[in-house]
Amino acid sequence: MLREHFPGLNKQVHAKPLVYLDNAATAQRPRAVIDAVNDYYLNHNANIHRGVHSLSESATERYEQARRSISRLINAPSEKDLIFVRGCTEGVNLVAQTFVRNRIKAGDEILISHLEHHSNIVPWQLLCEQTGAKLKVIPMNDQGELVLNELDQLLGNKTKFMAVVHVSNALGTINPIKKMVAAAHEKNIPVLVDGAQATPHLKVDVQDLDCDFYTVSGHKMYGPTGSGVLYGKAEHLNAMPPYHGGGEMISKVTFESTVYNAVPAKFEAGTPNIAGGIGLGAAAEFMMSVGLDKIAQRDQELRVYAEQALGEVPGLRLIGTAVEKSPVFSFVIDGIHAHDIGTIIDHHGVAIRTGHHCTMPIFQYFGLAGSCRASLAFYNTEKEVDVLVESLLKAKAMFE
Question: Could you say which of 203, 230, 275, 308 would form a disulfide bridge with 292 (CB–CB 3.0 to 4.6 Å)?
Answer without folding.
Answer: 203
